[in-house]
């Protein structure tokens, strides 16, 4: 790869996208594609995956084909590219016939650099026939982890994409994703026939994200409401486990004056589209959603993601939490979880019609997720290790790093609980086990009252014992049999239980400090090179946002397609009054300078005159 072409790529990054330098592994990925070779790139959310194929598509002769799973994602990307002055279009099932023929006319005239299509659309025979006659610069496969059944977003239609290797043997293919553990990466290579291609895996660190997790306390929405109310006027996403759950939670939030909307697959398509559009355009909207909402929703200023119900795996966790803070500004990921969620997850896997091998992989993923959620060491580091990163350091800003969780040695109490569960023979649920330990069982049978574990647990209250039982469930020392909604508790991992009995394995009880709300208001560390504004600049920033909102409305595009919050913050800080100083701001390229330069400078000028 000649350095001349990388220099040219950097020039495009500057002029068209307005960014001074490549970051992370962008330059390496781009070099590989420019050299005509295929590659797999795993870059974190917000890491800038799209320029990795957009720039080579602009440089290499022919049409760059981008395969993307969701229409919302395509719409946003195409809108952003058009704003930057790049010749891009999409073809999907929602378009009109005349639009399609117009797009094809442009493709045939060689006028288009990038075309976005869905996997189904791509594989339609008519589309394929036309593409075979079209010179292609590259094929980018976005969200490539969808091809893997080990992953968490398996999409059968992605499987067909392996055929692209044979249909277009000369065209470099780039598979990109934000979440793929080692096994998923292997699967992507096999399925997409990228056997000898280079792999670029960036760090999974998301320094702008502060993570926390807490066990659910009681039922209902109280905690979620508290968390949301402590974060007013900010855009957030709340994931709930069921459609019904999302509707009810959104309603409860609206009752508390929060502008929340529900989103799930049970809603009418038009309603969903409308709510999505509303959310994208708003700067303080809250979306309460099932996981039907998400992939491809690239709203950059989501300030928090709350899991009202836990995700399905660490991959899903990182991806869902990762929708916060895409603009690099500080954001939070908060997860609520419980032992019954875990039991439910196992049960769902058990009911799936997949091979035992797939089941055991999925069961392991559940175990790893709960070990992370209920663990006692840095969450961000745990995730990064899970994805195979080495030499990872603690993040210093998750709840565990900040020490809002304390552990006490509860080995002896654990011995009692395990022994009680054993003696009770797996025929009772958690509540009954706790009553047994406290000796408070109502009308105990002679058998139960005669057991040596009856009433031995005076050291904890009922809540303390419930916590310990949960802990033992998360540790796999106890196991819950869902028993059609009336779960029964029995012994789990035999070796582990023995080790606890013998005192060879310690059980540390995780105890939340009194002040478990510390994280609600604690001062936040800065995000990825976050821009900090003085009061005066803050006013200018607000002016700029006001201008942007009006402009977005006029053009019917989401505000961030015009400029990101980061870019506006940097403008507010630098107060550019000439085109060249405005151009130096990250996110301002020549296209946007031509389009908005005069207006932006007028906003700056006006504020400066107003404040003298
Ligand atoms: P993702 O990897 O999540 O798809 P995007 O491609 O949407 O990320 O990029 C995320 C943000 O980072 C965008 O606002 C984009 O303009 C910005 N970005 C991309 N590359 C750079 C860079 N080299 N320097 C600064 N910002 C960049
Ligand atoms: Zn940490």
Short structural description:
This protein is an alpha/beta fold. Helix content is 45%, strand content 13%.
Poorly predicted regions: 513-527
**Approximate helicity band:** 40-55%
SS elements, strand count: 17
**Largest β sheet strand count, sense and barrel closure:** 7 strands, parallel
- Strand proportion, as a percent range, falls in 5-15%
Which small molecules are bound? adenosine-5'-diphosphate, zinc ion
**Outline, from the CA principal axes?**
globular
- From the alpha-carbon coordinates, what is the Rg to the nearest angstrom? 27 Å
> Order of strands in the sheet with the most strands?
3-4-2-5-6-1-7
> How large is the count of helical segments?
27
The secondary structure category is alpha/beta
For the residues shown, what is the average pLDDT?
A: 88
Calculate the terminal CA-CA distance, rounded to whole Å: 53 Å
Describe this structure in words.
The strands form 4 sheets. This protein has a 7-stranded parallel β-sheet, sandwiched between helices. Strands 8-13-12-9-11-10 form a 6-stranded parallel β-sheet, with helices on both faces. β5, α8 and β6 form a beta-alpha-beta unit. With 612 residues, the protein is an alpha/beta fold. It is built from 27 helices and 17 strands. The protein is globular. The structure holds adenosine-5'-diphosphate and zinc ion.
Write the layout of secondary structure elements.
Blueprint (H helix, E strand, L loop, with lengths): L2 H13 L10 H9 L4 E4 L7 H10 L3 E5 L3 H13 L4 E4 L5 H12 L5 E4 L1 H5 L1 H8 L3 E6 L22 H4 L5 E5 L4 H10 L6 E4 L7 E7 L6 H8 L6 E4 L3 H13 L4 E4 L5 H13 L4 E4 L14 E4 L6 H8 L9 E7 L1 H12 L5 H18 L5 H8 L18 E5 L1 H13 L6 H9 L7 H4 L12 H13 L3 E4 L6 E4 L2 H8 L6 E5 L5 H4 L13 H21 L3 H4 L2 H10 L4 H5 L6 H21 L2
Parallel strand pairs: 1-6, 1-7, 2-4, 2-5, 3-4, 5-6, 8-13, 9-11, 9-12, 10-11, 12-13
Antiparallel strand pairs: 14-17, 15-16
Helix pairs in contact: 1-2, 1-3, 2-3, 14-15, 17-18, 17-20, 18-20, 23-25, 23-27
This protein binds adenosine-5'-diphosphate and zinc ion.
């Amino acid at each position: 790869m000649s350095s001349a072409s990388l220099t040219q790529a950097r020039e495009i990054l500057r002029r068209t996208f307005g960014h001074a330098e490549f970051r992370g592994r962008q330059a390496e990925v781009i070099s590989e594609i420019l050299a005509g070779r295929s590659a797999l790139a795993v870059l974190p959310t917000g890491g800038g995956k799209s320029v990795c194929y957009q720039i080579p598509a602009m440089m290499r002769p022919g049409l760059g084909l981008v395969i993307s799973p969701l229409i919302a994602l395509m719409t946003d990307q195409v809108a952003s590219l058009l704003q930057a002055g790049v010749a891009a279009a999409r073809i999907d099932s929602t378009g009109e016939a005349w639009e399609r023929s117009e797009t094809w006319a442009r493709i045939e005239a060689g006028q288009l650099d990038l075309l976005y299509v869905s996997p189904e659309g791509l594989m339609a025979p008519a589309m394929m026939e036309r593409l075979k006659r079209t010179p292609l610069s590259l094929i980018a496969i976005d969200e490539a982890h969808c091809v893997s059944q080990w992953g968490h977003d398996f999409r059968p239609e992605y499987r067909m994409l392996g055929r692209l290797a044979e249909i277009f043997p000369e065209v470099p293919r780039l598979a990109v994703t934000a979440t793929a553990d080692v096994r998923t990466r292997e699967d992507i290579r096999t399925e997409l026939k990228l056997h000898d291609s280079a792999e670029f895996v960036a760090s999974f660190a998301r320094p702008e994200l502060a993570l926390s997790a807490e066990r659910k306390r009681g039922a209902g929405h109280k905690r979620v409401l508290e968390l949301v109310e402590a974060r007013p006027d900010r855009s957030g996403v709340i994931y709930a486990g069921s459609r019904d759950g999302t509707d009810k939670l959104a309603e409860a939030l609206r009752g508390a004056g929060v502008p929340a909307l529900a989103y799930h697959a049970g809603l009418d398509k038009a309603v969903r589209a409308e709510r999505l559009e509303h959310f994208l355009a708003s700067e303080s909207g809250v979306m309460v959603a099932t996981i039907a909402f998400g992939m491809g929703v690239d709203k950059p200023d989501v300030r928090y993601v709350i899991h009202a119900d836990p995700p399905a795996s660490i991959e899903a966790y990182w991806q869902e939490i990762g929708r916060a803070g895409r603009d690099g500004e500080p954001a939070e990921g908060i997860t609520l979880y419980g032992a019954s969620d875990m039991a439910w997850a196992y049960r769902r896997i058990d009911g799936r019609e997949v091979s035992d091998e797939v089941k055991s992989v999925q069961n392991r993923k559940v175990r790893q997720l709960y070990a992370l959620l209920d663990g006692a060491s840095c969450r961000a580091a745990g995730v990064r290790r899970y994805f195979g990163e080495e030499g990872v350091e603690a993040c210093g800003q998750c709840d565990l790093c900040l020490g809002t969780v304390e552990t006490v040695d509860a080995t002896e109490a654990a011995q009692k609980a395990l022994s009680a569960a054993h003696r009770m023979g797996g025929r009772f649920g958690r509540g009954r086990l706790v009553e047994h330990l406290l000796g408070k069982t109502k009308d105990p049978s002679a058998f139960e009252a005669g057991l040596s574990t009856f009433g031995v647990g005076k050291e904890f209250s009922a809540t303390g014992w419930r916590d310990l039982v949960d802990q033992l469930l998360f540790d796999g020392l106890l196991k819950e049999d869902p028993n059609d909604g009336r779960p029964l508790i029995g012994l789990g991992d035999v070796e582990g239980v023995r080790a606890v009995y013998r005192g060879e394995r310690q059980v540390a009880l995780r105890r939340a400090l009194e002040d478990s709300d510390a994280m609600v208001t604690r001062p936040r560390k800065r995000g990825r090179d976050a821009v900090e504004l003085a009061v005066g600049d803050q006013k200018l920033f607000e002016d700029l946002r006001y201008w942007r909102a009006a402009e977005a409305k006029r053009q019917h595009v989401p505000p961030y397609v015009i400029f990101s919050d980061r870019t506006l913050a940097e403008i507010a800080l630098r107060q550019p009054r000439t085109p060249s100083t405005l151009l130096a701001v990250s996110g301002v390229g020549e296209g946007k300078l031509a389009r908005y330069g005069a207006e932006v400078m007028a906003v700056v000028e006006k504020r400066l005159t107003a404040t003298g």
